[in-house]
Write a structure and sequence with these properties.
This protein has 268 residues and is an alpha/beta fold. The chain has a domain at 92-264: Rossmann fold, CATH 3.40.50.150. It has nine helices and nine strands. The strands form two sheets. It has a five-stranded parallel sheet, sandwiched between helices. The protein has a four-stranded antiparallel sheet with strand order 1-2-3-4. It binds S-adenosylmethionine. Residues 86-87, 97, 111-118, 134-137, 140, 167-169, 183-184 line the site of S-adenosylmethionine.
């Protein structure tokens, strides 16, 4: 039986408070970003597989779930396991790199190519003069060549990008990095990334750093110390990490950390 207007199961839309209605409709809202989303095609190179999924509903890093169309997903067949996702054009992956991409300037070093999204978006910024992308696995570099990632960019943007096949932990930059983005891990939780990022920052003489998942590392540390997330406690934890992290300059940063932690924080 369909609920009728008289049996009490219908609530007229105009009787629903606007904030509750907005939350209820959020999952049906398409994901929108002003950042560049390249065109990807399905392919396989070595253990890596790129797939394009017609319609996805996926959570953000700090925002509610959104719909995305023709979403590319990069996964790798792990030894003795099935495929695991390393990167995708989902709201979570984009929001969790966005602060770094927007802060990119001068010589930007991106550790981990993946789908090349962070590197390409950094290169598209007029403030960025050069992008060095350091990638360990030649198959990832080949996959991005095969799908024509850089063919989607104008020649002046492509000219800014150097792809280097090297281990991010060993790579030393000839010229200091004005911005360093570190993203070489599969899970978003894990505190070893802060120590590893310190090594990468030292080796590239980095002036500013954005670590993928840094918000969760900050939230985990706050929890261990029994601290609420405020500007002061975030600054204290960032100082402990001994990295010039971008993010804390934002007035909404403690709130963003709390929202990301609510969705994604796991014990490590
Ligand atoms: C999550 S993906 C990076 C996604 C990328 N930020 C983007 O926007 O598409 C991680 C990448 O780091 C690479 N990687 C893992 N360990 C590495 C290492 N030690 N040195 C360099 N690259 C590494 C992986 O092969 C993979 O391509």
């Amino acid at each position: 039986m369909y609920p009728s207007e008289t049996d009490g199961t219908h609530i007229p839309v105009d009787a629903i408070p606007p904030e509750i209605l907005a939350d209820a409709l959020a999952p049906l809202t398409p994901f929108v970003t002003d950042l560049f989303i390249p065109h990807y095609q399905s392919c396989e190179v070595g253990r890596w597989r790129l797939q394009v999924v017609p319609l996805l509903l996926s959570p953000g890093y700090w925002n509610p779930a959104r719909l995305t169309r023709n979403t590319a997903i990069l996964s790798r067949r792990e030894v003795g396991q099935d495929y695991r996702t390393w990167m995708s054009m989902t709201p979570m992956e984009i929001e969790s790199q966005e602060i770094g991409v927007r802060a990119a300037t001068g010589h930007t070093v991106v550790m981990g190519m993946g789908m090349g999204w962070a590197a390409v978006n950094a290169a598209l910024k007029p403030e960025v003069t050069r992008v060095t992308v350091v990638e360990l696995d030649p198959d990832v570099i080949e996959m991005n060549r095969l799908i024509g990632l850089f063919d989607q960019l104008s020649a002046d943007i492509v000219a800014k990008i150097d792809v280097v096949n090297a281990d991010a932990m060993e790579y030393r930059s000839g010229t200091p990095a004005d911005m360093l983005m570190t993203d070489i891990w599969l899970p978003i939780n894990g505190d070893e990334r802060m120590e590893q990022s310190r090594v990468m920052a030292r080796n590239t003489d980095a002036r500013q750093v954005y670590v993928w998942g840094q918000e969760l590392a900050i939230a985990r540390r706050a929890r261990v110390l029994g601290l609420e997330l405020t500007d002061v406690t975030v600054a204290r934890i960032v100082a402990e990490f001994d990295l010039s992290l971008v993010g804390p300059e934002r007035p909404d940063y403690p709130g963003l950390i709390a929202r990301a932690a609510e969705k994604w924080l796991r014990d490590v």
